[in-house]
């Protein structure tokens, strides 16, 4: 069985990152949800350590790690989710300016190769 080369793997992970960034910019994926996914992909794209565009998403994840992701919200009481809704909305307003720029930078960087 053939295994993909490291460079093929990195290229596919970068494609996933670009698609995710586009989804965040279009509003299809929230910056809150997207940050977790970006952080998950970041170790697989051969980006330099301390990459400021990726660190933007590390910051979002760090500041919101107490909030439940959509895929587990059904385990939380509806009252709690309702009570947290303003915080979800505030997170998006806070993150949008710098996360949008980081998304644009990552898209540009990984589609120009």
Describe this structure as you would to a colleague.
- This protein has one domain.
- The chain contains four helices and no strands.
- It is globular, with a radius of gyration of 15 Å.
- The chain starts with 5 loop residues before the first helix and ends with a helix.
- The model has no long low-confidence stretch (mean pLDDT 94).
Main sheet makeup:
none
Structural class: mainly alpha
Distance from first to last alpha carbon: 28 Å
Principal-axes geometry comes out as globular
Q: Give the topology string: H per helix, E per strand.
A: HHHH
Percentage of residues in strands: under 5%
Number of helical elements = 4
- Counted up, domains total 1
Set down the secondary structure blueprint.
Blueprint: H1 6-26, H2 31-42, H3 52-64, H4 78-111
Helix pairs in contact: 1-2, 1-4, 2-3, 3-4
Summary keywords:
4 helices; 113 residues
Concise overview:
This protein is mainly alpha-helical. The chain contains 4 helices and no strands.
């Amino acid at each position: 069985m053939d295994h993909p080369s490291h460079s093929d793997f990195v290229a596919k992970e970068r494609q996933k990152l670009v698609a995710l960034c586009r989804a965040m910019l279009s509003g299809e994926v929230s910056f809150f949800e997207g940050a977790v996914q970006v952080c998950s992909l970041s170790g697989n794209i051969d980006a330099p350590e301390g990459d400021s565009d990726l660190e933007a998403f590390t910051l979002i994840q760090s500041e919101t790690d107490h909030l439940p992701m959509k895929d587990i919200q059904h385990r939380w009481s509806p009252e709690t989710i309702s009570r947290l809704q303003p915080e979800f909305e505030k997170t998006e307003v806070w993150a949008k300016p710098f996360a949008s720029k980081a998304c644009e930078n990552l898209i540009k960087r990984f589609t120009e190769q």
